[in-house]
Structures are given as C-alpha cells and as structure tokens.
Give the backbone structure.
Amino acid sequence: MAVTMKDVQFDVRDGGSFIFERAGEFRIFTPEDFTDEQQQMRAVALRFAEEEVLPRIVDIEAKKPGLMRELLEKAGELGLLMLDVPQKYDGLEQDKTTTMLITESLTRCASFAVSLGAHVGIGSLPLVYFGTVEQKTKWLPRLATGELIAAYALTEPGSGSDALAAKTRAVLSDDGTHYVLNGTKQWITNAGFADLFTVFAQIPSDKGDQFTAFLVERDSPGLTIGTEEHKHGITGSSTCPLILDDVKVPVDNVLGTIGKGHRIAFNILNVGRARLGIGSIGAARYALKLATGYAAERKQFGKSLDTFGLIRAKLGSMAAAIYAGEALGYRTAGLIDRKYHALEELSPGPDDDDFQKAVEEFTIEASILKVHGSEALDFVADEALQIHGGYGYMTEYPIERVSRDARINRIFEGTNEINRLLLAATVLKRGMKQRIPLMQKFQAISASLKKGEEPTFEPVGDALVDEQRQVHRMKHAALFAIYQAVQRYMMKIEEQQEILGAFADMMIEVFAADSAIARTLQYGDGPLASFYADCTTLTVEHARDEVFTLAKRVLAAALPGDKLATGLDQLAVLDHWRAVDVFGVRERLAATVIDAGGWPGI
Ligand SMILES: Cc1cc2nc3c(=O)[nH]c(=O)nc-3n(C[C@H](O)[C@H](O)[C@H](O)COP(=O)(O)OP(=O)(O)OC[C@H]3O[C@@H](n4cnc5c(N)ncnc54)[C@H](O)[C@@H]3O)c2cc1C
C-alpha cells in the first residue's frame, strides 16, 4: 500500500522492515521533503528560540519565578503548543514530521525545550490518544493554548526503569464516585507549575494490582508538590516530586481502561523517544554551529583553530553524525505518519486507536532514534566543547550549558540500556511470532555462508554502490551473529544482556547507515550532493567497523570452542575492509561546514 503525503508517494512499511530491505529501496521521508508550510513553521519556532528564549537564558537557568510559564504561554500564542491536538479540540492536528521539526528547532535551549516537550508530549498526549470525548473537551483546548500546562507522573523513588512496579495506590471509594490516591511520584518535569498530571497508580483488586492512569488536577486536596531538585543540566526546567496523600480523584478522571495503564505509559514513551531523538539532533546542530563559529575566531600559533587538521577532523565527524541522525530520525517520523494515514484510510474515525497502532509498529525504530540521537548529541556536544578548549568549560560560553544539558537524554524516556534491550528483544520476538521474516532470513544466511558464498547483492541505482554493498553485508553479519546466539541460548537469550546490547548496537549502526544511503540516493545531484555522499561514506565506514567487531564478540560469546573458528570463517565471507580515505572525506566535510558557518543543510 502507498500513501501520498505532500504530493509525494510513499510506500507504507512495517516496523523492522529495514533489516530485510535493500538500502534505498523504498522512499523515506527526509528533511528535503519538508513543505514550504513546514519550513515556515520551523522559521517561527527558530525565531522564537532566538528572540524570546535565548536572550533570557540566565533567568531561565536561575528558574526566575513565572518565567517558564510565561514563555510557554507565548509559545502557545504562536501555535507551538497545539500541533498534536486534534482540530476538533482547537488544535492544528499536524503530522509527526511537523511536530518533530518544531521540537528540533527549539532544542538550542534545552531547559525550555524539555519543558515544552513534557507539556505537549508526555503531558498532553495521554489525553489526546486515550481520553474520552468529555475529558478532551474539558482540558485539551486550554492545554493547546498554554492556558493550562501538563505533566506526566510515572516514576517513583523505588521504580524508574521498572515502571510497572509503581507503588502508588488508587482505592475506589465506598460510594464508587472517586478513587483515593496515595503515594509519591519523583522527578516530574513541569511539576512546579503544571495544572494537570497524568498519574499512574495501582488499583488493588481480586485479580491483583491493576496499573491505571488518572488525570489529576493540581488543586486536588491532598496533592503536594515538593521542592525543586538541583540538577546537573537542564537547570531551568522544573523537576519536583508529587506527594499524594488521600487525593480524591473522580472516577470520570480515569484515563483509558482500568488495568491498561501500561499501554498508555509505553505508547506515550514511544512517541517521546522519537521526539527526544530528533530534538537531540537539533541540539547537535546548534553545538556544531557554536564550535564552527568559535574555531573560526580563535587563533593559536598565529592561525585560526579551523585551519588545524585535528579540529577539522572533528567538524567533519560531527557533521556525519548529524546527517545520519536526521536521516534516521525523519525516516522514523515519516514511517509513523504513513502507517497512521494508511490505517486511517482503512477505518476513518477521530477517536480510534490508529495512532497507537502506528506508534507501536515502530517501537524498534523509535528506540533506535532515541539511543542514536542522544549519543550523537553527546559526541557532538563533547567535541564542540573540546574545540572551545578551556573557554568551553566556562559558564559564559553557551557550549558549556549545551554539553551539560545533553547528558539527560540518555537517562529519561527509558534509559539507553532499557531502549537497547527493548529494541533487540522486539526484533527477536517479532521474528519468533513470524511478524517479520527473521527465521527464514536466519536460515538463508546460514546456508549461504556455510557454502562460503555471499548472499546475492543487487544495488539500488548506480550511486554509492560500495556503501550499499557494505550495508548489505552488515545486515547479514548482524543476523548471522545473533542467530548463533539464539541457537545457543534459545528462550534464555533474554538473560544474555550483553549479547542483546551488541545486537541492538548493530541494528542502530545498520539503520543509521541504511538511512544515510537512502537520503543521499533520494537527494540526487542537488548542491549538497557531494557533502551528503561524504557524510554517508563516513557513516557507513564507522558502522562497518562497529558491526563486524560486535558480530565477532557475539560469536565468541555464543559459539563453544571448536565451533568458533568455523563461525568466524563464515563471518569472514562478509567481512571486507575497503580502503576509504577517511581523513580526506572528513577534510572535505569540514571545508563545507566551515564555509556554511555550521550545518549546511536545510
Ligand atoms: C531531569 C529528569 C526529568 C524526569 N522527568 C520525568 C517525568 O516528567 N515523568 C516521569 O515519570 N519520570 C521522569 N523522570 C524519570 C526518568 O524517566 C527515570 O530517571 C528513568 O526512567 C530511569 O529510572 P531511574 O532513574 O530510577 O534509574 P534505574 O531504573 O534505577 O536505573 C539505573 C541504571 O540501571 C540501568 N538498568 C535498570 N534496569 C535495568 C535492566 N533491567 N537491565 C539493565 N540495566 C538496567 C539503567 O539503564 C540505569 O543505567 C525524569 C528524570 C530526570 C533525571
């Protein structure tokens, strides 16, 4: 099935299908596909960040009372808080590619972006996707303008990653009119000023605890907001505990189905992850801009820093990381949008669960995006700080803040460890359930490598053929390695976290390289063609080294003594190092970045 979006025809794909497809075989959504209208919205968001947020950064970071709320309301006046809200409830009902583009544009001030993201994302989306018509009518129009601010309260002192182990209790009153909530929620973003909280709690019952979401208003008697945390980064955002002491919540405020709170919690986190991944790439672009500007101005040994080879190499590597992050990020947003539009065409209706299905379908890609984006940002921000030398360590230079703010992204919305485990387990589970053709592929690869033959490769077009071939090999290497581990550990593979982590890392590298190739092939011969091609070559080269190292480690862990040599021989059929002038590629990338004063793309 195909869907036409913005006059471009896209095939609807299933989650995880990139593992089995050829790089560039299907059109992916890329930043080059943004419409004029989307570009205009992005310009509004960027101007808001530059003119309203960044000039007040010192006050924001000092948590000047009322300031964050005032800025959110101003963002609301520009329509930046209503993108995800259905038109029926006074919103703009934009697709995910648009909301992610806006997120990306605001992340140059992470404290503000996190506050806005928590409001429009994890704060409001539970209501958008799981609320009743009455609940939506009551709150959504005011959330869309910023008159009300939302927050999401899942974490507790004893339950972070293990969110379903939450201890907050919700007991139905004798007259059946309300639930009484008791417990403590911890590290809740926006809690200092939010008006509406999605609170997760256990309802005790004969069938055991039923994990359920509730909409809790700030002025509910018994609800106390604790003091602000003192944080390492994003210091301008509000992070407080909620103490629930016999808080009465009307039964009408139960969100979604009793006992199905996990569906809300995890679906919303999936969207949050994708948003966080793209936002991280936006912050990385800002870090690149800061580093490029500084490297042009600062002189040592009578020359500006940007003439030194080791500094230029950093700029080149940073650019490639951003390119791949954008490619896989917008690809994922486009995949979700397309699936959603396709499901909508099959069963139109504003209040059904098509969007949740579309999001669930791309669990693997959303987790990859979260991990890749946050780690690409850490890499880019750290190198940008290094380019600033000692000045980068001083708070008067914005890169100091950017590098501190970057760190949180690996922790919240599911830690990167949890996302790695989740994405690896999801690939294997879908394979076992025959939702994706993993088992057939395992057998085909094994048969071919046993004969010492490379699986057949057919390039898509005649550009980047070497890169395409390497990605084809990487996919097979990753699947071959994990197949050996699956055969050894069978169902107990779940306990082999290091193997799953290595498999996740291989999938992340493969998706990044695959997406970079697809974007570059689609771009054709535009003005940035050689820059994009160089970014792709560097991404593929990096991915190849990682994937084959990891595949060997997995084999070494999974294959008993005498079988290891055979396994390594079979893997060697795919393992072809090719001489790429990485230094030359980085040098060309750096030259373009320096010319542009930062990221040269749109
Ligand atoms: C600034 C900030 C804002 C936040 N905002 C919100 C919010 O708005 N709403 C909300 O509900 N929560 C929020 N959180 C909480 C956040 O989502 C959690 O911190 C996160 O889920 C991790 O939980 P934890 O900190 O308890 O770490 P833990 O779960 O204790 O994990 C500690 C370490 O162990 C690892 N680990 C845990 N389990 C496993 C496992 N099974 N296998 C391997 N490794 C494992 C983790 O990856 C991590 O490295 C926020 C946190 C911070 C710091």
